[in-house]
Structures are given as C-alpha cells and as structure tokens.
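Recall the central idea of this unit: under ordinary conditions, the amino acid sequence of a chain determines the structure it adopts. In this exercise we apply that idea directly, starting from the sequence alone.
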Amino acid sequence: MAEKSIRNVGLFGHASSGKTTIADAFLFCAGANNRVGKVTDKTSVFDTDPEEIERVCSLTLGLATFDYKNHTISLIDTPGYSDFIGEAISGIEAIDCAVVVIDAVAGIEVGTERLLQKIEERKLPLIFFINKLKKENTDFSKVLSSITTITKRNIIPLTIPVGSAAALSGVVDVMQNKGLGPKGAEIEMPADLKDNLSQYTDKIIEAAADSDEAVMNKYVEGQKIELNECIDVVKNGIMRGKIALCLAGDALELIGIHSLIETIINFMPEPHQMPDITLNSQKIARNGQSPFVGFVFKTTVEPHLGEVCFVKVLCGAIKSGDVIKNTTQSSDEKINQIYLLKGKEKQEIDQLTSGMIGGLVKLKNTHTGDTLAASSIKAALAPITFPAPSISMAILPKAKGEEGKISSGLAKLHDEDPTFTFAFDPEIKQLIISGIGELHLETILSRLNRKYGVSVDLAKPRIKYRETFTRKTEAQGKYKKQSGGHGQYGDCWLRVEPLPRDSGLEFVNKVVGGSIPSRFIPSVEKGVKEALENGFIAGYPVTDIRVAVFDGSYHSVDSSDIAFKIAASMALKANAQKGGVVLIEPIHEVEVFVPESYMGDVIGDLNSRRGKIMGMEGEGKIQKIKALVPEAEMYKYSTSLRSMTQGRGYFTVKFHHLEEVPKETTKRIVEELQKENT
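Accordingly, the structure predicted from this sequence is:
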C-alpha cells in the first residue's frame, strides 16, 4: 500500500449539484464497487447515516479509500447545505486537490462560491466539474464562462461535452483528441467538435504560456507548441494556484467520470509534492523520513467502536502499538487499531504512512482539530476555524431525570460536529443548543434520540432583555420600624444617572460628613445591586447606570446592615418611578448572502423584522446584505431564508449592541410575561 502513489481528493459544491452521485460513480468506474451506489436508492457508499438516508442528501463528511491501478485514492464527499458547512471545512483540511461540482442547469450558486473561497484560502489545486449535462436547458459554454468570474485562476477545459441535454453521449478529451462515452469507452468524435477543438487546445497553450517563460517566448515568436510540451507546465501552474482544470459530464450516466479519475491521477499532486509543513517556524518535509505529524480533521462516534478519529498523515508514519503525543492537548496517546475506511466498511491495517488518510480508534483525549506527532515534535498545527453558530434553541427533557443523559449525549455530538455547541444559561434558566441553522439542529436532536435514547422538546430561547434609566434622578429611601426594644432604622439618598451603552453598573460613595457611617455603605451597595437584579418594568436586570449614595441619616442604636439594605432598595424604587426606565434589547449584526434575484424579498423580510439595512455589496455573483436586527426577531430566520431563496441563501449573525425597545413592543413583552406568570 505504502509504495503506491497517493491522491487525496475532496468533492465540494452547492446542495444537489451531484457530489455524492459523482463519488459513487467514481468508486464504480475505478472498480472499487461492483455496482453504482445511488442516493435515491439508499445504496450510496457515502450517505449511510440514517438521517441522510431519510432526507436523501449528505449531512456529514463521507470518506472512501480504495486502489485504482497503482494508486491509492482517498475520496472525501461533503454536504452542500450551508447548515453543514463545518463538514466541508473539515474535508478541506485533509485533501491535496479539490473538485468543485457545478450543476449545469443552476450554474454558480451561493454554496459553490462560499466553499471556493475556503479552497482558495488554502491555495489547493482545483478542478471544476460541470455535472448534470444530460438535463434540459444546459449550456456548457455559458457555465464555463461563468467560472472565470469566480476565480482568478486560468481555466483549462480538459473535457467538453458531445451533444447536449438528452442527446449527450459522452465527452471529448481535449489533450488526447478522442471521444469517450459512458464508463470511458471510446466513441466517434463528431465532425463539428473536431473543427472546434482548436479553441480549447489554444486555451491550454495560452494558459501554459501565461504560466511559463520558455513557453511564453515560443508563443510570442509564433513557434508551434505541442500539447505534450504543456503538460508539466500545466501541472506546475496547478500547484502554484495559477491554473484550474474544468471537466464536463453527467455522473448519473457515468459520462466524464473516467476522465475525472484519470485527470486526478495525471495532473493533481501527490501529498509529498504539497508545500512543507510549518511548525513553530520550522519547516518539515512531507515524506516518510520526517518525524510523524498527523492532523485529526473529523471525529465520529460509532456504537461498537466508540470515537473514530479521521487522521491525515502529513509526514512520517505510525503503526499499531506506537505511543505518540497529542501536541494540542499535551497528552500521550497509544495507537490501537488503524483502519482504512470506505463508507461504513473498515479494513484494519498495520500502519499509515506519509500522505495517507485513516481512522484511529480508542484514543483517550483526541478531538477534531488536534495534532498528533512523534515525541520529538512539541508544536501543534492551528486548529480548524469553524463558523460561529447562527441560531439557538432551548431544549427541555421529555422525561424527568434525563438531564445527565442529555448533557453526555450533546457533548459527544459536539465532539463529532464542533459547529454545534450547547450550554446551560443560568440567567434565563434554559439549556441552549446552537448551530448553523434549523436543519442542523433538527439533525442533531434526531441523532441524540437515535444514538443516546433521549427525546427533548424544543422551546423558544428567552431573550436577555435589560432595563435602564433615561433620566437623572434623586430620591430618598427611609426604613423605620419600631417593635419594642431595639428598632430598625436606615435612611439614604440615592442619585441615579444613565451611562452610555455597555457601561454596566457603577456604584459610588459620595457621602461626606459621616451622615451615613462608612460601615453601612457596603449594605447600601448590596441593597442597590439586589434591587437592580429584578428590574422595574418586566423583571430584567438594570444596567448602564451610575448609582451614588450622597446623603442620609442613622440612629446610633437602631441602625443596622439590614435596615440600610432595605432603605437602599426603597430609594432605588423611588428613583425608578421618575427615572424614565425603559427596556433595552440585544441587536444583532446580520449578514445575508443571496443571489441578486432574491434581494428584494430578503430586504423586505428584514424590514418586517424591525431590521435596519446598513448596506449592500457584491461578492462575485452573490450579494451581501448587512443589517442590524433585534435578536427577538431572528427566531427561525434560517427556515424563512431557505424558503425565500430556494435554499440558495445563508447568513451569519453576531451580537452588536443593546438598544431601546419601542414602546408598543415593550407593552407586548410585558403582557406576554404577565400571561406566563399567571
């Protein structure tokens, strides 16, 4: 196995572009599966999760390692739905070549551009595959032309379709000058394509000239350049991120898949040809002689095996029985079984060598994003940067006493999918789960039920409203109680003034002349803080004010800590009656990414949510709308956005500031709270 050349390939693209169909066709055409797995028939090698089978789409990263001729290929299939972008980002960490799949009917979509941006950041070698060319209303040239608008790389079409729509019969391999039908069988090339082939061969020569000085000199001097002279130059241009390849086909019909496999073998780099690894400014070559460094890019939990860590060996080798270091967690790990994975199938092997991808089981303290290394290596690679959650929901156990099982299950689900987070919020007294979208959270809860036997109900998360003063006020609080013997006496004057947002609470002692002895000031402060915890309008904490105690009186016998605490609380309530107390709410900065045709609907919807549109800008063929929207209005936004944009939009959200709630909305909130509490 180790002597074979290795290719690590990932499939990326918008939902429903046909990535999993390509992956299954790839296995069949490479002889790694004796039938063509199909998502719709529930026979895919890659979509094996019960939730994936039920929804007929990929929700997790799928991996298959297999042999083709004298090569070992690890093929990673990723989901296209924006809710599961974390899985695609994990896949990008493991590959040496990205295949971006484009639906020939839909063309460039939001998901395509978003993933391409991540691939470009990593400067990965790149192939575009224009899929579904058998469908009606496809235009290969139009899609090919649109690709040039989303990447700065020179695009070289290596295969072009023979016929279109229902008449699609195969592709022409431009380099080899021959027609290839389903499964790569040779077919007759139509005369019109023979005549037009020069426009595509010219693109190869021009891209080579643009990438290499020697070829450029020949080109400028008008000398004949043979295609085979361009092969090494094109490979070099691919490695340097100057050139990307484009292939055509229809995976369902097995058209163009054989060419895709051969192109990956012939043009894409082997792992050892990728740039050296940099650890603590030290460069380590990607080969078998270097000390072992591996990166865990994905974790799954399986019923009988426990956690399976998907690891990419960047250099060196590991074998069963080795003790290595997890340099991220600063702990030792013993390597137990090592597996090659092909969907749900596992083949146990003795070792993983440089460039290989495999599964490690029964590691004690290793998670997604961790670096595993030989003991001589002290540094860790940067962890994976996942997008922050966009939505949150509260969950309640359906049965009493299951809180422990829920927390344990959610912790394991977070290990599998770091874009999912959960935490108990003591302020709103709810267990909050957060993710990229509603579909994401639905899937998480389905797995919680299936894997860990726990059912929960979803609830709307409570909003962390605050209250604040809008006017400067002064008021007295006097507590006097006589009940035979010692009485209670506390008297203080408090001044309250509003502060700018995010100032919190300031308490100031302005008492002069001993009108309140200093020993009672902490009790005044305690009374103030306790009174502010439950607000004056709707029971929310009061913030962004300065409270100063500036005068008062005391009794040498009857004054006590409790009396001054109660007096402070009374003074604060008296201030609140004339301080123009208002409710303030969290406002989120929302960025929505949509194709231009949906902008009107999206902007109208944001306005209806009390949103303020702050600006719009184009990012490639996608428009970014920036808005400030109250958190209370963002509930179930991802479902609305999906239906408004037919699944082509996505959004990010983060806290921006606190702002006063309009009077009508405040009235509604107070009424709702009163109903809840009756």
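DSSP finds 16 helices and 36 strands in the chain.
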